[in-house]
Specification:
Blueprint: H1 3-10, H2 15-23, E1 29-35, E2 41-47, H3 49-62, H4 81-86, E3 93-98, H5 108-117, H6 124-134, H7 155-162, H8 164-176, E4 180-184, E5 187-192, H9 201-213, E6 225-228, E7 233-235, E8 238-240, E9 246-247, H10 250-264, H11 270-286, H12 289-298, H13 300-309
Antiparallel strand pairs: 1-2, 3-5, 3-6, 4-5, 7-8, 8-9
Helix pairs in contact: 5-7, 8-9, 10-11, 12-13
């Protein structure tokens, strides 16, 4: 693909300058942790500014050549968790599964094997450049194992590309059995209206993971959940009610309402205002009637301030 030449032209740099930079690129990350939704902490590796620019440039070259399956709903323009949940909206039975350490399971070798299956030719120099710029080294020593980082702008596309053939195979199995399959990053969801049809499906998933990744990508057993209309059904943070409607759930509504109340009294800390704005926009997208309820409770003026004044 002649990626060195592309970067030289894109950044008005010599090949030597590019080579000097990529030599230590896997170490050019700021490492920090954030709390997980349930328990524990998630390690984020955020690339340095220049490295991030290189990553975006390379992804721009790769994206037109490497397809992402339609069953994948994360990291796509104008598609998100709402559209993912809508796919399962009318199904009575649900199965949710989760990959174990998903991003960190993806290595340059795994990525290149998928690229090869798409008949995209990479030179030795191309591979070196891609592994140095698109993957990071969590080890304290230089030359340690390279893995995909959570935090790089290039990682979402790479993760979706790596799972293309797995998504394709699983989608076909599900289609033949009348099961709906979607994947949102490392969360995979199956739904159907046929009772007991999903109970053996974790074995199908594990078989396909072994077939496609030889055990490199595995399931987090503790996150496997079966649910039905007799229990709360949740898909990537969205509640599906027994009437088949999408909801943000009672607890989250109460929480947002409490934040709006603090905002209306000018008691909400500045650092929480942006958070409220994003959370409120998410709630209105999932459940549009929520906005009218909050207007009725707190006034149109207050809600408009949340929507516009914080920009």
């Amino acid at each position: 693909m002649q990626l060195y030449q592309f970067l030289c032209k894109e950044f008005s740099a010599s090949k030597q300058e590019i080579s000097d930079f990529v030599l230590s690129a896997p170490k050019k990350y700021k490492i920090y942790t954030i709390p997980k939704r349930t328990s524990g902490k998630r390690v984020i590796a955020h690339p340095a500014k220049k490295l991030k620019e290189y990553q975006r440039a390379l992804i721009g070259q790769l994206e037109p050549l490497l397809p992402v399956h339609d069953a994948a709903f994360a990291y796509k323009k104008n598609i998100g968790i709402k559209q993912n949940a809508q796919k399962h909206q009318k199904s009575r039975y649900l199965l949710k599964m989760d990959f174990q350490n998903f991003f960190h399971s993806i290595t340059p070798e795994l990525f290149f094997s998928i690229v090869k299956q798409h008949n995209v030719e990479l030179t030795k120099d191309d591979k070196y450049l891609l592994e140095q710029i698109l993957f990071f080294c969590p080890s304290k020593r230089t030359g340690g194992k390279l893995i995909l980082s959570i935090g790089a702008p290039s990682s979402p596309l790479i993760s979706n590309v790596v799972l293309f053939f797995f998504d394709q195979a699983l989608y076909e199995v599900c289609k033949n059995q009348g099961i709906i399959y979607t994947r949102y990053a490392d969360d995979i969801t199956f739904s159907t209206n046929i009772k007991n049809q999903l109970f053996e499906f974790p074995l199908v998933v594990k078989h396909l993971l072994v077939k496609h990744f030889s055990g490199q990508i595995t399931i987090n057993e503790s996150k496997t959940v079966f649910s039905s209309m007799s229990h709360n059904r949740h898909v990537t943070g969205v509640t599906i009610t027994n009437e088949g409607e999408l909801s943000i759930g009672r607890e989250r509504k109460r929480y947002i309402s409490s934040l709006i109340h603090q905002f209306s009294l000018n008691q909400l800390p500045d650092e929480d205002r942006r958070y409220l704005q994003g959370l409120f926009a998410f709630a209105c997208d999932i459940e549009p009637v929520f906005k009218q309820r909050m207007i009725k409770k707190y006034s149109l003026e207050t809600i408009n301030k949340i929507i516009t004044a914080l920009r």
